[in-house]
Amino acid sequence: MNATTKPDTIDDSAAAEAQAAEAEEATAEAVTENADDSAPRDSAAHDAAPHDSASEEETGEGEAEDGEPDADPAVARRSGVGAGAGAVVAAALAFVALSGSWMGTVLSERKTLTGQIHLPQGASAAQQIHEVYAAPWHTTALVNGGFALLALIVGVVVLALPLFSTPARTQAVWVRAVAWGSVAVAVIGLVIAAGMYFDLFAALPSAPAATSTPTQ
């Protein structure tokens, strides 16, 4: 009876060992297959990484070539302040050109005084009109025309500033509006000053012709 039990025990042990060996072989084959599957994916990811970095570098270079460097904010603020101040100055000069100025009044009165001083005794009525009225009137026209010309120059310079800036900057809406208004008023002032100087709006007064009285 003992002899029959020992062979059965040996067979069971051999079968268990065979099953364990088969399980180990199956596990090894599964690990090998997983390693084989993951290797292409790793190599593909490794190959794609340089392409991605190269694409990023090319994109960065393209943006650097296409895009202009950003201007310094401090410089942009100073430029905006200068343009705004220029527009306001042009508007003030244009207003003075239309309404007159203290300088024009003083120069006109000075011209009147010098005309009276240099007017000879017994001067004709035409000479008196020219020295006392026409010369001061023309002086006022010249002063007003000078202010209008200055307003026109300043307004045009303010409008042309973006054309000479690198990179080109867009001016504020109110700056462009004030500058354009100043240019328009300056042109009107120039036209009025020219009309005053050449007596286009009103002719100079003239003295009546002397009438001779008959002698008896």
What's the gist of this structure?
Helices cover 79% and strands 0% of the residues.
Q: What would you say this structure looks like, in words?
A:
By secondary structure, the protein is an all-alpha fold. It contains 5 helices and no strands. Helix 2 runs parallel beside helix 5 (173-197). The longest helix is centred in the first third of the chain and has 65 residues, at 2-66. The chain is rod-shaped. 17% of the residues are buried. Mean pLDDT is 77; it is low at 1-7 and 60-70.
What are the SSEs and their pairings?
Blueprint: H1 2-66, H2 73-99, H3 102-118, H4 125-160, H5 173-197
Any key phrases for this structure?
about 220 residues; about 80% helix; mainly alpha; 5 helices
